[in-house]
């Protein structure tokens, strides 16, 4: 069996999530996005094998970031990714995505797709750096506090 554990910057490592990570993942998600997800939804995702999640954590297993996928047959969707603000800009997000690519090598998934807000340059640069290219745009897709919805970019990257 392949070891599902990867090194990450800042003394962190990456491993599959556990149900007990729901609190930490919900907090990070709420901190990172204008619209959080109900904790019950996150609990359900962490139990569902169709939404595999990797967490970046420290030696005491305190969660500093996560990436949640949804398996859709040939495609796999990056549902969400977030890194604790204290750990951003150090390569943790990139390490999480690379771990996802490696973890998916033994599965039938052929392509990773995602949606990202056009007003989120940090995420767009991360995705471009890791080989994602833009497929299309969805205007007015994301709610914003000022009432002016933001465009979503749909991006994809071949796996394997
Ligand atoms: C997007 C996010 C996950 C990136 O995580 P991270 O650990 O900070 O990213 P990394 O340090 O691995 O950065 C990798 C690349 O992304 C780009 N990047 C990351 N942060 C950036 C920033 N603030 N501004 C510009 N580019 C940035 C850079 O190209 C960087 O590569 P480089 O360091 O070689 O220049 C993190 O900023 C975050 O949690 N944001 C809030 C949630 C979010 O927006 N998620 C994405 C939703 S689609």
From TrEMBL:
> Which PROSITE patterns does the UniProt entry name for this protein?
GNAT
Against CDD domains, the record matches this protein to: NAT_SF
Against InterPro entries, the record matches this protein to:
AcTrfase_RimI/Ard1, Acyl_CoA_acyltransferase, GNAT_dom, MshD_Acetyltransferase
One Pfam family from the record: Acetyltransf_1
Please give an example of a GO cellular component term from this record: ribosome
Molecular function via GO? N-acetyltransferase activity
- Please state what the protein is called: Ribosomal protein S18-alanine N-acetyltransferase
Query: What's the gene?
Result: rimI
């Amino acid at each position: 069996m392949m070891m599902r554990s990867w090194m990450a910057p800042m003394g962190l490592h990456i491993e599959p999530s556990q149900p007990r990570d729901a609190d930490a993942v919900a907090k990070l998600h709420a901190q990172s996005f204008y619209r959080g997800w109900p904790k019950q939804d996150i609990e359900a995702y962490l139990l569902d094998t169709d939404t595999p999640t990797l967490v970046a954590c420290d030696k005491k297993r305190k969660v500093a970031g996560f990436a949640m996928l949804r398996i859709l047959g040939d495609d796999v969707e990056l549902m969400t990714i977030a890194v604790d603000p204290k750990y951003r800009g150090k390569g943790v997000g990139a390490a999480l995505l690379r771990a996802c690519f490696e973890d998916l090598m033994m599965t039938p998934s052929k392509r990773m797709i995602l949606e990202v807000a056009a007003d989120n340059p940090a995420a767009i640069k991360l995705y471009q750096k890791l080989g994602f290219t833009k497929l299309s745009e969805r205007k007015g897709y994301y709610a914003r506090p000022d009432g002016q919805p933001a465009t979503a970019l749909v991006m994809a990257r071949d796996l394997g």
